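Hey all, sorry for the wall of text incoming. These are the three entities for the joint prediction.
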Amino acid sequence: MNPRVSFFATCLADTVFPHIAADAVRLLEKLGCSVTFNPRQTCCGQPLANAGFHAEAAAAMRLQLEVLLTDPADYVVCPSGSCVLQIKEYPKFFKNRPDLQDKARQLGDKTYELTDFIVNVLGRTVPGARLDGRAAYHPSCHMTRLLGVTKPPLALLEQVAGLELVDFKGQDKCCGFGGTFAVKLGALSSAMAAEKVENIRAAGAHYLIGADAGCLMNLQGIIQRKRYPITVLHIAQVLMAD
Amino acid sequence: MSIKTSPLPLKERLRQELANPVMRTAIANAQDLLNAKRDAAFAELGDFAKWRETAGAIRSHVLENLDFYLNRFAERAAAAGAHVYFAGDAAAATAYGLQILRDKKAAKAVKSKSMVTEEIGLNRLLEEAGVEVVETDLGEYLLQIDDLDKPSHIVVPALHKDRERFREVLAAKKGYTGDSVPENLTRFVRQLIRKDFLEADVGITGCNFAVAETGTVTLVTNEGNGRFVTTVPKIQLVFMGMERLVPTFAELDIIFSVLARSAVGAKLTSYMSLITGPRGPQDADGPEELHIIIVDNGRSRVLASEFGEVLRCIRCGTCMLECPAYRHISGHGYGTLYPGPLGLALVPVLAGYEDYGEITKICSLCGACSQVCPVEVPLYEFIFEHRRIIAEERRLDVGENFLMGLYGAVIGNSKLYRMATRLAHFSALAPRAGPLAQWTATRELPAIPKTRFRDWFAARGKKGNLP
Amino acid sequence: MITGKELFISRISHGLGRAAPPDTPTRLVYPHQMQRRYLAHASTQKLRDIFIANARAVGVDVHRCDAGGLSAALLEIVRKTGGPVILAADPLLTGDVAQCLTEAFTECHIWDAGAGREKNLALAEKAKVGVARAEMALAESATTLLSCHGGNGRSITLLPENSVIVIRAETILPRLTQAMDWLHQQKTLPASVNFVSGPSSTADIELVRVQGVHGPLELAYIIVE
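and here's what came out:
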């Protein structure tokens, strides 16, 4: 089986964290997928939609809808639970356009978050991954509560040689990113992130691992400001580490 | 008091609350303790998903038939001997209450905590009319004597204070000379308020839920003040939000079974008082007159809107105990009588977007609240929809609208996006102002590399790896 | 008497898309009936044992006795708390029990509704112990149901510092569901029905539980078998 994957990089990984997207692509190829990337893609529109600016997000949503269904692929895979959630919600945004709603459902049905795809579609674990040290895993809110993907990242991390996963206080709590929330109510957002970082530190973690770059960027921002010796990694990077 | 609990603007309220370490510690501890107790209580009960689905179905059914059930309730309550007054707004509700007290020449009223009476500003009006009003819930009493400090949570109103603060207030206002051990503080307040219970002319309460079938009003309390207030004074006033109904006792079972568990992790509160009419002809205690004031005050507008299901709320307070934003700012940060996720979902439509739309910013859309609500109010969806309404129909913030429009235009066009992302690398040169300053005040920004993922992917055929 | 109903309710009806309330409501369908399964086939003994365990867990002092031993059980409690005692005018308590207490204590009163409010409240206020009989009890939450009317004044289990509630063992039922069934079946309800599930308490100060706020400081149950 050589599944054809159309890769949705996310605007954040494309621009700010290209290593995450690159590792995700390499990972999918390692697991036997043939991966294409349509360069016309931009952003799923979530930050705008979450802030209430649905009309302003419409052009981007229509664009992704068109672009991601263009290439002949079996699946659309994306290294971000929140972006996948947004894509799966596209039908709700096209209530007035039944034609687009149909296409949106099609797209939503074939779009998967990276770890969900690996565990539940490919049915694979990742051989050869190794990272020595204690790691704290941050479960992103949109990915877990709203998209419903909770177990796959843990299942994959448990297979990583040398990695000791540690629990920490308030592990399930929101990190405070919330898209534009992080820059609209920056002090409150930081307070939420800072508490989480202190708990991660108290658990003695060397690594902070997550599956959503937005959350990781937020927590990393605090970690770096406080100069804590905690390396922040996206799960794609961990799975490609050896 | 009304819905607004602070004269300060949003940013100032947040700054103030974030700078209050006593409150932040108290709220964080409260969240951790009560959420664990709630989870344990529901784990012991089992089938949480079924209970909340059933409770939600009951509440939704009542809202769908609210006119019918209110009608029935009024008839049955009146048949049991109560006076039932329908108050369209706060002014009507308080005017009625005031009139009764005037007619009875009441000098003192004892109150069992009621959110709706705070919403309509009852206490202030009674006091202006010369009635002494004594709040009898321990937390509310302490707030009342502390120069009318505002509640920070709907179930545990003084959550933001610690024992030292309570001791200070009692010493300053009531001559307390003991220490700050909670039991000692409580005993002191007990003997103070006991006199008030026995002397009061009027007892004023809220109503947790009313039973339409029998015209019964109910009160759930732990302290016993609810029972006192409805036993000793000769006149009783019950203020009730119009949506707080169940059809029959069978539904009361379901609602009460989830209420205390959700609120404080207890199976039931120590006392549940079911009151049907004033005292019977053979009864020596209980009120001689019972007045039930049913309050709309914007609820009918909520019911008619797309947010009607927020009226399912049973006022357990668990959504705010679950909320990671509330954790750092308490109810005071929201500046509304109903704070937290409940406040965000309810208040803009209950009392207007003009004054209250802004609080919908206080949310990272984490979805935790929706998952713990015992009656399945779609809190996340409602907050999301309020934001759409505010952005698209109300256009409150010109600067934000412009930036969002710009952002939307860029990501809506492949070419513009490619150009913009190429420039993103130079963001290191951007001034740390505006939204960026909100980030960089407390967090490092990542360095944006020169090569985007798309450049790497395009160049792959030739070379392969990113540096 | 009802005031202001028409306009108020019509506002609601209009919001719900109709001119007036329907004659009958839509049908309420319970998606589940999990509340009926709890201890559904439990024996009297099992219900009693669960009730006792749950009561003790929330700080209630629990005594057991047989039909003839109620006076002795009450005496034991009252010797510790001291008098005066106020009793509900219930057949279980008046007669032998009242006489026994009166012989042991000079002040033992029975709530006499005919004597009026002031007299009864004064007695309840001065009493150290108030004793009443529960209609039924609920095992899951260690709850007792007090039907307060006539000779069973509300104040009996409220004003005195100590509260004693007497329960017939065979009236211990699984949970709130059965109590609500019973209430639903009553042709008329007394003005006051009180569910008591523990001593008076608060956690308003730093969430530290303090027992005994405005209601009784101590609560005891006596189960008569």
